[in-house]
């Protein structure tokens, strides 16, 4: 009798699962370049903002070094002033790659705000007194190149109620390129992105 009752309960639970469609969904790949499906910032937003700012910077001539050669760029502070936990490197990394490929700018990872991005340049210099290391292969003094330019910026979010059922979220990507020798901004750009959705949608 107990077995029959147990079997009946199991069958009932199985029927309920099938009826409510509680079967696990398959994992699928998403094309990040398709239209955005979220009120928050996604890959497409960062890619679009970065592409627009890269094209504007290159077209402005701000990174055309007189006499040729490449500028050395340091990444300063890019502030996230949105309601989301985002990594601003999503924006700056794409810009850095494009500038490097342009042949006009190279980024230093040995010098940065709050310390180097890659501490290895400093670490290898600690080998200068090591008897285990061929001193002829250790980086010499005075070889790290100081930056010519600094890239800084901010990402801002503003939420608005359009009507009782619709909200709009505006994002502003803002960047400044500064000549560290003079302290003057030689290029600045702003890229706005606006999204509308239901008032129940969240942007974080």
Characterization of the model:
The chain has helices at 2-20, 43-60, 89-102, 120-124; strands spanning 71-81, 105-107, 149-161, 166-179, 184-198. With 204 residues, the chain is of the alpha/beta class. It has a domain at 41-108 and 145-198: ABC-type transport auxiliary lipoprotein component (Rossmann fold). Strands 2-1-3-4-5 form a five-stranded mixed β-sheet, with helices on one face. The longest helix has 19 residues, at 2-20. The radius of gyration is 26 Å and the shape is extended. The mean pLDDT is 85.
List the SSEs and their pairings:
Blueprint: H1 2-20, H2 43-60, E1 71-81, H3 89-102, E2 105-107, H4 120-124, E3 149-161, E4 166-179, E5 184-198
Parallel strand pairs: 1-2, 1-3
Antiparallel strand pairs: 3-4, 4-5
Tell me briefly what this model is.
The protein is α/β, with parallel strands linked by helices. It has 4 helices and 5 strands, in the order ααβαβαβββ. InterPro entries: LpoB (IPR014094).
